[in-house]
Specification:
By secondary structure, this protein is an all-alpha fold. The chain has 10 helices and no strands.
Length: 217
């Protein structure tokens, strides 16, 4: 392992993780769900949601291999399924529309009526939803050495830490960027996510049909 390899893997993993979690999407929903809360209560909710999201994603990262074996699913199949799921999310982000694969209107409405929204629906499915869980398991499934799991866990931790600060500063961000600025950011994240989704799908298909695509491994 070289420092260059570690940093390169960390950058790729963090970019993908941040794009799929996309904490900017959570800002307007967070504001709607905590509209009656004080600033202190909002900070506590943001902290608990971010910590819970980290624990959920880290758990799937550490137990990913066991889940593959338990359900008899290959990494290639999971790459294809995860890539399709991410592609659906990316299309919604590029169209600046809320993705039902992340959180449905029913879940958002139910969350607005709850006193404590930190775990559900903020931590999951908004931050640690199906897309982020699938991405985490694909990244961890690619690891062939123990040190390659470290960038994945660090990327999850950094993404959740940034999510905490974005949610904590949600009022300022909403005021500063406005709806147009938020849509622009979501489209940029959607483009990155679409590219990553296609790469997942191509990797999975190439592994499953090496002769047809002239690849292997």
């Amino acid at each position: 392992m070289s420092a260059r390899e570690f940093l390169s893997l960390g950058l790729v993993t963090f970019t993908g993780m941040f794009a799929v979690v996309d904490p900017f999407t959570a800002v307007p929903i967070f504001l709607a769900m905590t509209r009656t809360n004080s600033d202190l209560e909002r900070r506590r909710t943001a902290r608990r949601a971010s910590i819970a999201a980290f624990l959920i994603l880290a758990a799937f990262a550490l137990a990913g291999g066991l889940l593959f074996k338990f359900f008899g699913v290959t990494l290639a199949a999971f790459k294809i399924a995860g890539g399709l799921l991410l592609l659906l999310m990316a299309i919604d982000m590029l169209r600046a529309q809320p993705s039902r694969t992340r959180s449905s209107p029913e879940e958002t409405e139910e969350g607005a009526l709850k006193e404590d929204v930190a775990i559900f629906p903020l931590a999951t499915p908004l931050l640690a939803g199906p897309g982020s869980i699938a991405t985490t398991m694909v990244f961890i499934g690619r690891a062939t050495a123990w040190w390659q799991t470290v960038p994945v866990l660090l990327s999850i931790a950094l993404t959740c830490y940034i999510a905490y600060w974005l949610l904590r500063s949600a009022t300022l961000i909403d005021r500063w960027l406005g709806q147009t600025g938020m849509n622009v950011l979501n489209r940029i994240m959607g483009l990155v996510l679409a590219a990553m989704a296609m790469q997942f799908i191509l990797d999975g298909v190439r592994t499953s049909f090496p002769r047809a695509l002239g690849g292997g491994g």
